[in-house]
Amino acid sequence: MSTRPRVLLTRRWTEEAQQRIVARFDVTLNENDKPMDAAVLAAAVRNYDAICPTVTDSITASILETAGRRVKLIGNFGVGYNHIDVAAAQRLGIRVSNTPDVLTDTTADLAILLMLMATRRAGEGERELRGGKWTGWRPTHLMGLGLQDRTLGLIGYGRIAQATARRAHQGFGMRILYNSRRRVAPEIEAQCNAAYVEAVDQLLADSDVVSLHCPGGSETHHLIDAQRLRRMKSTAVLVNTARGTVVDEAALASALAEGRIAAAGLDVYEKEPVVHPDLLPLENVVLLPHLGSATRETRTAMGMRVAENLEAFFDGKPLRDPVV
Ligand code: DGY
Fold first, then answer.
1. Of 27, 132, 242, 264, which sits most exposed with the smallest number of CB within 10 A?
2. Contact predicate 149/208, CB 8 Å
3. In angstroms, how far is the first alpha carbon of the chain from the final one?
4. How far is the CA of 226 from the centre of ligand 1 (A)?
């Protein structure tokens, strides 16, 4: 019998990242890449020393409380960890780590992609062309909104928001406003001349593009609801690369359908992979399937970062990225 720690990867990773875990641990891979259900995850709590989940796994208190628990570390593949009951893990003495930094630029790139696609009506144009409905160039065809000198309002001002702000400010000359739980240090604000706005409602009223970068979970659930959407300009665009639960999707679909805001670009959804049916027929929303960190190099770097945390933990060293 192997004396190496037993590790479960709940989804398929890139070959390079899987190889690093396999080299050191007694690993079970998920070859067919199907999501694991609660019963399988509960059994894993009994049978593995470490479980490496992703955003598609709900690691609840009842799963962590499984009798005969063996698991000591939840090495999350991803920076967001709202799918893990971290308080329960802490209570049970189970450590949790995540993968910050390595996906910052990739996710900020995607926020800019959504911003451009939504403001320049790229999805709508592509659908028109592929549908054989393009009748040729004309001065008033699919006119969008330019980003130059517009105001970008960011909700949350962590690493990904700051990287998004840099791209928007230095690339497009956008003015940067932000709201977050804590005001950041003056030198961080100075990088993009970012102005702190204490009230979310004020930020919404003053922004041409609003981009969400706060964590998911109960504190931010439906932070953007029908009332808040009414605070936005009718010409404004909402971008969400954070977590779907931050936005009331039904309220957003109504606001878009009624032209109360101009457009939205979404990468995340309340009940992934299900998308609210009222969003699907709308021309003024760009819908991507949670691609924020989806480049080959970033997904490999995320796996390597999980590996670093596992190696540190089983070597008796401090976790590189401790959540609890
Ligand atoms: C993240 O890292 O949080 C991504 O959204 C995938 O979980």
1. 132
2. no
3. 31
4. 26
Q: Identify which of 13, 56, 79 to mutate to test ligand 1's pocket (most ligand atoms within 8 A of the CB).
A: 79
Catalytic residue among 20, 95, 243, 276: 243
Residue nearest to atom 6 of ligand 1 (CA): 78
Nearest to 109 by CA among 306, 217, 220, 267: 267
- Rounded alpha-carbon distances, angstroms, from residue 119 to 24, 31, 165, 272: 47, 40, 17, 24
293 lines ligand 1 (CB under 6 A): yes
The per-residue pLDDT for range 166-218, each reduced to its tens digit, is 999 999 999 999 999 999 999 999 999 999 999 999 999 999 999 999 999 99
79 lines ligand 1 (CB under 6 A): yes
Backbone angles phi, psi at 190, to 5 degrees: -65, -30
Q: Which helix (H) or strand (E) holds 129?
A: helix 122-130
Closest residue to atom 4 of ligand 1, CA basis? 78
Is any ligand 1 atom within 6 A of the Cβ of residue 107?
A: no
pTM above 0.70, yes or no: yes
User: Is 311 a catalytic site residue?
Assistant: no
The answer to whether the CB of 79 falls within 8 A of the CB of 98 is yes
**Edge-to-edge, what's the strand order for the sheet holding 73-75?**
26-28, 6-9, 50-52, 73-75, 95-97
